[in-house]
Amino acid sequence: MNHINFKNITEFSKAQHLPEPENPLFSIGNKTLNADEVHNCVASNEEVSYTNQFYLISLKNIVSGEIIYGRTKYDCSTGTLLFSAPNQTYTVKDIVVSSESWFIAFHEDFIRGLDIQKRMKKYNFFNYNVNEALHLSPKEEKIIKLIFKGIEAEYNNNQDEFSKGIILSHLEALLKYADRFYKRQFLNRKEINKALFTRFKEILDAYFDSNQLEEKGIPTVEWLAGQLGVSHRYMRDTIKAETGKTAIDQINWYLVEEAKNLLLSPNTSISETAYKLGFEYPQYFSRLFKKKTGMSPKEYIANPSNN
């Protein structure tokens, strides 16, 4: 499998058959394909992986093909907004796109030291796997395209002291809309969310049943996300949207429910229960149990019907 590492935006623009960027740290471009071009716009059968040394936002209508990120496959859909942070790698095969595609590429240095650089950290979608892209409704796609066009107009205007500030204002608006639309997507994907949460609980059950809690300790959010084949940020947001609680809260509640069963088993001490559930120190277990149930493990053993 070939691997291409775009070290700068100029290399990326050339590969996309876009004009050389006006600014080496920022570029925007779009391509509109006619019917013949769409028919012929197919990558080779060989898989090719890409890594960018800059941020990339792209709006594409993908008809068919595969985009693979990590262990997961991208869910093809029209009107799709993709986000990639520096040093992320993705693989493509036989991609066919239709209509117009937009690209915004910007280097970390373009936003360094600015407020937007700090706010970028709150936008989880830059850390999502590619298959967790944002699927836009027609109305949402229209809004996003207008922002792309606004950035393009300013980018192609004669550069002056206001140019960068105006471009950054448009870029921040795009990111805020994307954040809003992602939250809508999570709410609209109840069945997918429910299935992921069900699988989340099944993994915890299997982990407990195979005594891995006692042998390896309490599983991390990152490990659980890996078992689900998604990023931990995506898993966190999905579980929060489905249950109203964080993934860590769900793990803790699972431990408490299993603790209730173990504590009522004959000849099982509080310390033994703590160790079986992966706690290195029994006092940490007792503290969590009381926080979640309102009583200590000892009080629960004496009055299990109260909880």
UniProtKB/TrEMBL annotation:
Keywords: DNA-binding, Transcription, Transcription regulation
SUPFAM superfamilies attached to this UniProt entry: Homeodomain-like (SSF46689)
InterPro entries named in the record: Homeodomain-like_sf, HTH_AraC, Tscrpt_reg_AraC-type_HTH
Record carries keyword DNA-binding: yes
Molecular functions per Gene Ontology: DNA-binding transcription factor activity; sequence-specific DNA binding
Stretches assigned to the HTH araC/xylS-type domain: 202-303
Protein name per Swiss-Prot or TrEMBL: Helix-turn-helix transcriptional regulator
Species of provenance: Carboxylicivirga sediminis
